[in-house]
Design a protein that fits this description.
Layout lengths: L1 E8 L4 E8 L4 E11 L2 E11 L5 E10 L2 E9 L5 E3 L2 E2 L9 E3 L7 H7 L6 E10 L4 E13 L2 E6 L4 E6 L5 E4 L3 E3 L3
Parallel strand pairs: 9-10
Antiparallel strand pairs: 1-2, 1-15, 2-3, 3-4, 4-5, 5-6, 6-7, 7-8, 10-11, 11-12, 12-13, 13-14, 14-15
Protein name: Transcriptional regulator
Pfam families: Glycolipid_bind (PF06475)
Organism: Paenibacillus albilobatus
């Protein structure tokens, strides 16, 4: 099944067009455009997950002003992460990627964990930060609040409610993004 969505930033600084392919494997393709005073940026990404919902690869291209950067993150069968072919031992064993420029990757732990209402799960993700365009470990927790509602909490104290559709695709990311209708 393939589903596309357009998100709009609530501060009117950007939009995203994203396609989710859900089935034997999960794939996410997105294009984020941001325009803030004195700066414009574009993020193009592709994420591939295995049948269990574990991230296997993410290719991200970041265009900021005239600077173009690309990053390829891969995880092998032994759960070892590499960035552009270089082993990142501090991320070994992590399951998910969290691309900071988009709400789309919140789908990954939501679908993979299949939480019951009231249940929480803590995990550490490979976090791609923007505008730094680097990777860091990010401890986070998801709590299922209702049929299609979750709370996202990073261990730094940031929290947001996430409203999803039945497949776990984010429809509203509190304070940040909302699905653009029409």
């Amino acid at each position: 099944m393939e589903k596309s969505i357009v998100w709009k930033r609530l501060d009117d600084t950007g939009m995203e067009y994203c396609t989710h392919t859900l089935g034997e494997r999960t794939e996410i393709d997105g294009k984020v455009i941001r325009s803030e005073p004195g700066e414009r940026s574009f993020v193009d990404y592709h994420v591939v997950c295995d049948v269990l919902g574990n991230t296997r690869e993410a290719v991200i291209r970041y265009v900021r002003q005239e600077n173009v950067q690309t990053m390829r993150l891969q995880k092998d069968e032994a759960n070892r992460w590499t960035q552009d072919g270089i082993h990142l031992p501090e991320f070994d064993g992590f399951t998910d990627i969290d691309i900071g420029a988009t709400p789309s990757t919140n789908l990954l732990p939501i679908r993979r964990t299949r939480l019951e209402i009231g249940e929480s799960r803590e995990m550490t993700a490979v976090w791609v930060r923007f505008p730094e365009f680097d990777v860091m470990p990010l401890k986070q927790m998801y709590t299922r609040l209702g049929e299609c509602e979750y709370e996202y909490r990073s261990m730094s104290g940031y929290t947001a409610r996430l409203r999803t559709d039945q497949e776990g695709i984010i429809r509203e990311y509190e304070g940040e993004w909302i699905e653009k209708s029409g």
